Amino acid sequence: MRYRLRLPAITRWNDGAEHTEGGFTVNIALRGILIQSNKYPPVGSNVCVELVLPAPDSEKEEILIECVGRVVRVADQRSPGAFGVHGVFNEDLLTRFVWKQPKSFDNAEILLKSHDTL
Known about the structure:
The chain has 118 residues and is mainly beta.
């Protein structure tokens, strides 16, 4: 079953050069993600995708979830296009971000608490 869900996504891959691209999820399933992005890896690429979710118990915290997998399709080759990743969500690598209220955007700070129990 797929769930329509729009979340920020960061995709990393290496095809001889390191790539990091931002995008948004279109839908999510237990074993994969469809991501919309201006740039995307070719079919067959191994990728690491990080998704950012709001913490269920705090307005000032977000949760980072990692999915490691392989690009199995490119749904649309226009810009922005979409690509599908078949992968595994790594529950052991949940990271909770605590955002401190910045005095200004130039002074924004992030505190990380890794491997928090949710």
